[in-house]
Amino acid sequence: MIYAVIMGYGTIGSGVAEILERDKDRIAAGAGQEIQLKYVLDLRDFPDSPVADKIIHDFQTIEEDSQVKLVVETMGGLKPSYSFVKACLNAGKHVVTSNKALVAAHGTELLALAKEKKVNFFFEASVGGGIPIIRTLYRCLLGEEIQEITGILNGTTNYILTKMDKEGSLFDDALKEAQALGYAEQNPEADVEGYDTCRKIAILSAMVTGKEVNYEDIYTEGITRITDMDFRYAQKLNASVKLFGTSRIDGPVVHAWVAPVMIGKDHPLYGVSDVYNGILVKSRMLGISMYYGSGAGKLPTASAVVADLIEAAQNEAYHVPLGWNSERLSVADMGSFSSRYFVRIAGDVSQRADQVEALFGAGEVVVLDGADEFAFITPRMREADFKEKAIALDIPWQKEGKQGILQIIRAEL
Ligand code: HSE
Asked: Residue 284 Cα, ligand 1 centroid: separation in angstroms?
C-alpha cells in the first residue's frame, strides 16, 4: 500500500478523491499496490463530503509524514503551491500536479529537484485536461523529431467561440455558462486573454525542444476582440475562429505564439468544438497525429491526475526521466512568422478594394450584404511586412478622420 494526499479540494481535487475511492481495485491492479488517500489539505472544511475525516489545514502534517509518498497538487496558482511542491520533493515524495502556472513558471527547477531526489514530478493534467499529450510526447513519440505542435488548449475559450459561432451567443453570456460548468479559471482573464493557453504551449514547447521556455517570450493575444461580425465573415468563408497555441520548430528557429486564427473546414482542428481540446502534432516520421478530448472539467482532468499517480506508484523507487533542462529556448520574433491575414476594412468596397489589393498583392475580397465594410484576405507574408503595409494603409485614413482597419486575424484558409 502507498499513501497519497491531495492538496486543494476544488473541482479537480474532489474529482481525484472520488476516482481513488470509486475505482480503488482497478487502480491498485494498475499501480501494483493499493493507493490509499490519507489527507486532503484545504483551507476550508467539507463536513458533508466523503473526505470530511481526511481534511487537514496544516501543510506540515504532510511534509513531516514519512508514510505519505504521493502528493497531488490541485490548488492552482503559485502561492503556496510552489513552496509546498518543492518541500514535498525535497522530502522525497512524488508529486503529481494539474497546475500549468506552476509547471510553466517553475518546471525546470522542480524537474531537476525530482531527478536529484530520485522521485517523480508528473504534470499530465496541466495541458489538455484529460488528453494524454505529455506522456505521448515523452513516451510514444520518443523516437520522433517534432516539427510543430498546434493546439486548441483552452476549453473555456473554445466553448465561448463555439457558442458565438454556432448560436450567435454574446461573449459575456457564453463565458458565464463556461464558468457555471466549472471550466473557467478563478480569474477568467487567464482564459480569455490567452494566458492559460500561453502557459500550456510553453510547457509543450519545452517538452519537444528539451529546453526551458520563458512563457513571457511567447506572443499572446486572447479572444476578447473577436466579434459577431468576424463570425459573419467566417460563415461566408466556410470557416471559423479558434484560439491556437502554436510552436513551430524549424531547425534552430522556433516560433511560439497564442492567437485567434481563422481556419477553414478542411483544417484538422476545425471540428474541435465546445469544451474539447485538440492538439495536432507534426513529426518527421509519423507526419500529422491528433489528440482530442475534454480539455477541462472535474473527471476528465482527474483522469490524467490518476494516471500520473499510477505511474508514480509503479515507479516508487525510480525517477522517470522527462521534461527539459535549464538551457533557455530562444523564441523567434513574431515579425519573422509567415501567415495569411484576414483584415476587415471600413468603407465602401468599390472605393477601397483596389488600394488594398495594390498594397498587399492578390488576395480575396469578401463582402457582406448591407455592411459598410468589407474584408480582405492577404496572400501569405511575413508578419513584419504585413504590419508595415497595414500601417501604410491605415495612417492616411486616420489623418483624414476616417475609419480604416477594423480587425486583423491570422488566417489559415
Ligand atoms: N480554464 C482551463 C480551460 C481549465 O478552460 O481549459 C483547464 O486547464
From this structure: 30
